[in-house]
Specification:
mainly alpha
């Protein structure tokens, strides 16, 4: 039984280290993510401004307006994707998923020991 307790303690410690690694990586990348999002937001606004200023942009729609719309949509998608990847909730879910995996593993080990 002592070996089993030692093993459980080791697994819990591994989980704590893994959780810390996830948060450390998240914090380390925070500045890079924010800078990238700001750059994409700047490009998004510039594209809108360019479209408004371009005399060839068709008010009723057309190839030029469609090209601008596609670029704006792509930038918007990239911004949204980065925000989701970097969100607190996404990291929290990742850690919760890891915790559930460890819980299942530990419960299975306990069942085997009993």
């Amino acid at each position: 039984m002592d070996k089993f307790i030692d093993y459980l303690n080791k697994r819990v410690k591994n989980f704590k280290n893994l959780t810390k690694e996830v948060w450390d990586k998240w914090i380390e990348n925070e500045v890079a993510y924010r800078d990238e999002i700001k750059d994409l937001e700047r490009r998004y606004q510039e594209t809108w401004d360019d479209m408004d200023a371009d005399p060839e942009t068709e008010l009723e729609g057309g190839p030029v307006a469609d090209a601008y719309a596609k670029e704006i949509e792509d930038l918007d998608d990239k911004i949204e994707k980065l925000r989701k990847e970097f969100s607190y909730e996404s990291k929290k879910k990742e850690i919760e998923k890891q915790l559930k995996t460890y819980e299942k593993e530990i419960l299975n080990l306990i069942k085997k020991e009993l």
